[in-house]
Amino acid sequence: MKPTIKIISTLILFASLTASASDETSDDKPAATSPDNSHGIAYPSGWQNWSTIAVSHRTDNNTIRTILGNDIAVKAARAGKTNPWPDGAILGKVVWKDTELKDWKAATAPGKFVHAEFMFKDSKKYADTYNWGWARWVGLEQKPFQKGMQICTSCHTPVKNRDWVFTDPALLPHVSY
Amino acid sequence: MKPTIKIISTLILFASLTASASDETSDDKPAATSPDNSHGIAYPSGWQNWSTIAVSHRTDNNTIRTILGNDIAVKAARAGKTNPWPDGAILGKVVWKDTELKDWKAATAPGKFVHAEFMFKDSKKYADTYNWGWARWVGLEQKPFQKGMQICTSCHTPVKNRDWVFTDPALLPHVSY
């Protein structure tokens, strides 16, 4: 084998090994593709890194939650401009079953991951569903919920005068960022 | 006035108006300066925008919490590399008194803001306090806590074999970011 051909072969082998390694999925790495749409709404990639708007604990179904927002939502929440929320805001509610914190028995902590559900504010696109798009992805596999937005809106009807949102943004100190 | 001088005057006026506007402090804006150090540790500016590691609810003192982390801590939490946590990790626990969610009585939500407390991992700088710096800022005014790190470490002693950390990172779906 000529030296030039040998170098090229080595490069091709190295490239294919690298490609193979980067295609692998492990527990430490995100999957290569997003979950399918829920109610026709695309998956809001990156929500795991969004900032906090509030937290809550429900004793009627033993779940503990954090309520996150995209940049538009967080800015609106911290400025108190939430009735109505601005177009472009996305609110995410991340839900876990309760568990007892092993080393502090009087503390409830996140156990099994239940689902992540989202409200997408767009007063034109979602005019027929109270100006919000409603979506949910279930389980760690993030299977899209497809049972209809009315499942979401019927539960949220008690807060129709609060732009359909239960959450009050939690108080946070205003200090230099 | 010559045209050139007029243009320069207009620019100076515009610049001073802009500067004046950006100097203003309102409820929507962070304060201009950081709070004083706690136990000699500088305030971790920007924690309000950190990502979530877990949440918890304590029924012994009726508080609800979110546990946030800086980038190093969040990366370690999501990779399961938390015993020990890496140097540079900062964990923040944000604590509110319980309140009942107005429109869903079985839900506990954040009421009065209590404090934000932090653990700063640095195995050299804080070798004398189990490799962590311990700090707390109290109330919305973020008054630095100065009663001594031993107040923090004595409470955390039950988890000394877990690198002094109570929190288990909450399960989150691994999907594309």
Count of beta strands of chain A: 6
Q: What is the straight-line distance between the termini of chain A?
A: 62 Å
Succession of helices and strands of chain A:
HEEHEEEEH
Gross morphology of chain A: globular
- Return the average pLDDT of chain A rounded to an integer: 86
Number of helices of chain A: 3
- Characterize the largest beta sheet of chain A: strand count, sense, and whether it forms a barrel: 6 strands, antiparallel
Please, how many domains of chain A? 1
Helix content of chain A: 10-25%
Overview of this protein structure:
The structure is a homodimer of 177-residue chains. Chain A is α+β, with helices and mostly antiparallel strands. The first copy, chain A, has one domain: Chalcone isomerase (3-Layer(bba) Sandwich). Chain A is 21% helix and 28% strand. Chain A is built from three helices and six strands, in the order αββαββββα. A six-stranded antiparallel beta sheet of chain A has the order 1-2-3-4-5-6. In chain A, a hairpin with a 6-residue loop joins strand 3 and strand 4 (107-121). The first copy, chain A, starts with a helix and ends in a 21-residue tail after the last helix.
Topology:
The structure is a homodimer.
Chain A: H1 3-23, E1 51-58, E2 63-69, H2 71-79, E3 90-100, E4 107-121, E5 132-138, E6 143-144, H3 149-156
Antiparallel strand pairs in A: 1-2, 2-3, 3-4, 4-5, 5-6
